Amino acid sequence: MRTVQNVPGFDTFNAKRLTAGEIANSFVMPPSFASIAGGDHCYVIGPRGSGKTTLLRMLTGESLMAWSGSESEVFREQIDYASVFLPADELWASQVTRTNARAAFTAQMLYALVDTMMYRAKAHRVQRASTHLPVLLTHDEEVALARQCASAWGLTESNPSFLGLQAALDLIIARLAGGESFETHPIASADSFALLTIGIRAFNRLTGERDRRWALLLDEMELAPGEIHALVTRFVRGGAGDLILKISMSPFDRYMHYYGSSGSPVPGHDFQTVYLSGQDRRDIYSFTSGLWRESLRSRGIPWVSMPRALGTSFLSRDPRARRTTEEEMKRVIVEAQRQDAAFSRWLRDRHIDVNALETLSYNQRSATVRKVFPLLVFRNSVLDFRHGHPVRRSRKKHLEPFTGADAVMTMLEGNPRWIKTAFAQMLNYFDESTQTVGPGFQYDALVSLANRFEALLRVLPSKQTAAPAIPVVDLVDAIAVHLHAQNSSEFTADPQNGFTVDRAVGQSAIDSLIMGLYAGAFVHVRDRRSPAVLSDFHGQRFRLAYLLAIRDRKEFPLRLGKDVSLSRIVKQMERRRPTAHPDSVPLELEIE
Predict the structure, then answer these.
(1) How far apart, in Å, are the Cα atoms of 466 and each of 231, 299, 470, 522?
(2) Cα distance between residue 540 and residue 500, in whole Å
(3) In terms of C-beta distances under 8 Å and separation of at least 24 residues, what long-range contacts does 436-444 make, across chains too?
(4) DSSP state letter for 304
(5) Which band of pLDDT confidence, cut at 50, 70 and 90, is reported for residue 219?
(6) Residue 4 pLDDT exceeds 80
(7) Residue 574 gets which letter from DSSP?
(8) Which H or E element spans position 563?
(9) Element (H or E) spanning 282, and its range?
(10) Segments in 351-404 forming alpha helices (H)
(11) CA–CA separation, 311 and 328 (whole Å)
């Protein structure tokens, strides 16, 4: 057993607080990175902690050059644009007028541009080998460039240099923060992206790279005010070809109606979208395995695969485990038939003989036995049976629904912050003699992570409206209790395990859903008709994050199922007494 180390909190892995070197040294490339790094405008969409900031910062020159992974050289050559990273700032939204909001955005964007200019124009040749897209710029050329930019940007020319430009921009930012109006200043009255491209083209001319492209990396766009969204969407639709935008944002954005108007940018044509939640299972497996390898390396533990260390689970699709899975499947089904009267009737109605499962065709097995097996494993974990009817177990009998490599990966959903936190705790209990982490330690790590996540949900603010606000954690708990009841009452092969937003849902629940999406508590279940970014919830399908499925008396299976209307769950909440705890709700109130 290894020495136990303190388990880091969520914010330990926040890319905002890390240097370029720290980000690059621990970077595990997800399958989506190639799309993000491409030469098109791109929206990176995901909840908090899903790695949006890391992915954008890995496009900057500093991070690319610090990256030593096997794919790093390929991407250093592929990324032929100079990146300007700009995190969203509260200053943009705090301005009294739209003009001042644009001025704040523009000033900080130009400041970041000058930062990238300084990085690329390092004068000492000894530094050129460690610089992405390096250029040589003489002192006289820097002075000429600074004067051109100062003139175009309306800056006082006291020190014509990169540092002089930043000092002048700093002064404007400070005056904006102090409430001064900039209504007539060029930095507010001119088009923000026109001022940016003036600086880019001046730099390109002086360095002899007239065709060099640049990328503006806009992080946390959901925090920006409407004025900034309007600027960005106009540029995405018809902006200059020498500047591309890479934009990260929450799954919901209140300003995405700009994309529905005539002449607006078209997803898949004017920009690409990359989704960091609800990912393909193969992508989750690849990324989680990479972070597992990195976690082992950082602890000095020789590599061992996740299935070997954590074991396979009932969710496993590994053909090598198929025989064992078939035998286990039959054992679980036989036991469920004996204990559960409703399941026994279900088998009889379908003329399924549990002693002759091998005689079923592949399609029959897929439509019946394989479909219900995960549900039976879940029910066996949380239920007892008395006289053929299910009753809640006082504590879990088995940990199978929530342990093993496949179950762990499913619950962590490809969220790098969750993955790193969970692995950090699991590896405290890595047994070197067997090269395993026991199911109990896996379960404890996931419960601890779920409790931390729930604590975060409890401190999320509620939007103040005329109607009573619904705290995010209350809506999460109400949905989880409903799903738990659906999956732990009389047997049905198609229990509800997701929800749709119907027209009867009030604004207070919508506000809670928005905040929960941002935090990662809810996952949008996308289909072909889903918009690129949500701006209207009606008719859309969602589920709870699978991490929330492990909480005591709120458990539900790690699988999709039928949907329930959200308004029904909200009505159930409203019928309860204010002092009632969700766990105290009788099951019969939750069952159709």
Answers:
(1) 31, 52, 12, 24
(2) 6
(3) 436/308, 436/309, 436/310, 436/311, 437/309, 437/310, 439/311, 439/399, 439/403, 439/404, 440/399, 442/310, 442/399, 442/402, 442/403, 442/404, 442/408, 443/399, 443/402, 443/403, 443/550
(4) -
(5) very high
(6) no
(7) H
(8) strand 562-565
(9) helix 281-299
(10) 362-367, 369-382
(11) 15
Distance between CA atoms of residues 524 and 517, nearest Å: 8
What residues are paired with 217 via a beta bridge?
A: 85, 246
CA distance 543 to 561: 10
Q: Cα–Cα–Cα angle for 433, 436, 438, nearest 5°? A: 120
Average pLDDT of the chain to the nearest whole number: 87
Q: What angle do CA 215, 40, 86 make, to 5 degrees?
A: 30
Structure tokens at 414: 């490809």
Non-local (6+) Cβ contacts of 34 within 8 A are none
What tens digit of pLDDT does each residue of 486-535 get? 999 999 999 999 999 999 999 999 989 989 999 999 999 988 888 777 77
Buried residues in 561-577 as b, exposed as e (16+ CB within 10 A)? bebbbbbbbbebbeeee
How far out from the chain centre does Cα 239 lie?
Answer: 28
Q: Is the pLDDT of residue 217 over 60?
A: yes
Asked if 43 and 247 touch (Cβ cutoff 8 Å), the reply is: yes
Under 8 Å CB-to-CB from 455, ≥6 apart: which residues? none
Query: Using CA atoms, how far apart are residues 284 and 449, in angstroms rounded to an integer?
Result: 18
What are the percentages of helix, strand and coil residues in the chain, rounded to 5? 55, 10, 35
Count, residues in the chain: 592
Phi, psi values for residue 429, rounded to 5°:
-120, 30
CA distance 51 to 58: 11
- In the chain the first and final C-alpha atoms are separated, in Å, by 48
Structure confidence by residue, pLDDT tens digits, 347-389: 999 989 988 888 888 888 887 888 888 899 999 888 989 988 9
Q: Kindly tell me the burial class for residue 442, based on how many C-beta atoms sit within 10 Å of its own C-beta (0-12, 13-18, 19 or more).
A: buried
Nearest to 255 by CA among 268, 236, 276: 236
